[in-house]
Structures are given as C-alpha cells and as structure tokens.
Amino acid sequence: AQSVAQPEDQVNVAEGNPLTVKCTYSVSGNPYLFWYVQYPNRGLQFLLKYITGDNLVKGSYGFEAEFNKSQTSFHLKKPSALVSDSALYFCAVRAAFSGAGSYQLTFGKGTKLSVIP
Amino acid sequence: DGGITQSPKYLFRKEGQNVTLSCEQNLNHDAMYWYRQDPGQGLRLIYYSQIVNDFQKGDIAEGYSVSREKKESFPLTVTSAQKNPTAFYLCASSTSRPTGENTIYFGEGSWLTVV
C-alpha cells in the first residue's frame, strides 16, 4: 500500500520569506510524486511532479520541490512567498511502473498555507 | 479551451433521492476519475475508468455508481444508499501510460448538499 503524510495542517509565513510545505511518502519501489494547489471552492491545479532524474524539480508559479530518496520526502519550496500563494497544498504519490489498473494517485490530507502581508 | 467541465457547481439532494453529477473532458484522455473531498480528509477515490465501457471501484464506492459510454464523459450518480453524501466532488482525467507518470488533471468540482 502507498501513503502520503503531510505533517503540518497549517503553515504560516510572512510575505517575502521562503516557504516550505513538507511531504513524506511510503511506496513499494520507485515513486512518482506530485504537488497540487487548491484555492477555495476550486479544483486542484497541478504544480509539479518528480518522475526521475534531477532531485530538484521546478514547477509553476516559482515553486520547486526536492526529492530525497533516503528520507522518503518531497518537500515543496518557494524562495519568496506571495500573499496570492495562500491556498491548500496537496502532495500525492504513485508507485512507478505499477502497471495497468494503478493510475490513481494517493493524496495527503493537505496543508493550508497562509502568507501574511 | 481544453479542459474538464463539471456540472452543476452546486446541487441539493433530498433524502432518498438519486442525483447525477456530470463530467465532460475534451483532453482526449483515456482515464477518468471521481474523488470525494471532505474537510481535513484529503481526497478519496470513488471510481475510476481506464477505457470506455470499463470502470473500477475505488476506496469508497459504496452508494455511488458510474458509467463510461463515451470517452469524453464519466457521470457519477449518488444514490440514496450513500448515507452521508454532503461533500465536494472532483472529476479528473489523465492519459493512461502503464509506466504511471501520467499527470491527473482536475475539474472545478461540484458541491453536493443533502437538505
């Protein structure tokens, strides 16, 4: 079974400061890892994903994430937070090469990011 | 524009009624999904379909039904057997490469409330 943990229900950061949203995962074999953002009353928007290769993945809106295999982590980061980054962030995992019937992602419970002006 | 369209955005259900949520995509994706979102619980998979005329139960399929008669459409029916249907429902789609690196894309969601 695969699982995702987002240990912080809420993260508060001042505008202009760097932000980190934490994610750890458990999966058999190699992982495919994803980050999504959700604004109030909206669907999830894809930010970035790690498939293979460089451990630092760059995505939309200036976000990046670092894959750490030894720590089974995939933390989301941004060098300088904006008030407009305030939203709910979801990490998700799928086992690589898991074959037909395994397209679905397992999501964490989400972390609410609040960027304070 | 390419995307996933869910309707209606808001739906109210009386006790004992079945209601159907619509989901249409024009991304030419083979796979489609329905998730349920409750506050503080993340997303839970209800049903998914990898191809027309085929679908599989997810983690919380009881009280729900789906059909996949067309590639573009994957409607979800919330039946009267679903005892706690009030939630935000998200439809999604993706390509279906067996290697698994497919990105899942989401619609804007539908709110269902029992009255």
Tell me what you see in this structure.
The complex is a heterodimer of chains A (117) and B (115). Chain A is mainly β and 117 residues long. Helix content of chain A is 0%, strand content 51%. Chain A has strands at residues 3-5, 10-14, 19-21, 24-26, 31-38, 44-50, 56-58, 64-68, 73-78, 87-95, 106-107, 111-116. In chain A, strands 2, 5, 6, 10, 11 and 12 form a six-stranded mixed sheet that branches. The mean pLDDT of chain A is 92. The N and C termini of chain B lie far apart (35 Å). By secondary structure, chain B is an all-beta fold. The mean pLDDT of chain B is 92. In chain B, a hairpin with a 2-residue loop joins β5 (43-51) and β6 (54-57). In chain B, the strands form two sheets. In chain B, strands 2, 4, 5, 6, 9, 10 and 11 form a seven-stranded mixed sheet that branches. The A-B interface holds A 9, 32, 34, 36, 41-46, 49, 51, 90, 94-105, 107-110 and B 4, 6, 31, 33, 40-43, 45, 48, 50, 56, 58, 90, 92, 94, 96, 98-109, 111.
Radius of gyration of chain A: 14 Å
- Relative strand content of chain A: over 45%
Shape of chain A: globular
Residues in helices of chain A, as a percent range:
under 10%
Q: How many beta-strand runs of chain B?
A: 11
Q: Which geometry of chain B do the CA atoms define? A: globular
Give the beta-strand count of chain A. Answer: 12
Largest interface: A-B, 29 and 30 residues
Q: How far apart are the termini of chain A?
A: 41 Å
Helix count of chain A equals 0
pLDDT averaged residue by residue of chain A:
92
Q: Return the average pLDDT of chain B rounded to an integer.
A: 92
Major sheet summary line of chain A = 6 strands, mixed
Main beta-sheet annotation of chain B:
7 strands, mixed
Radius of gyration of chain B: 13 Å
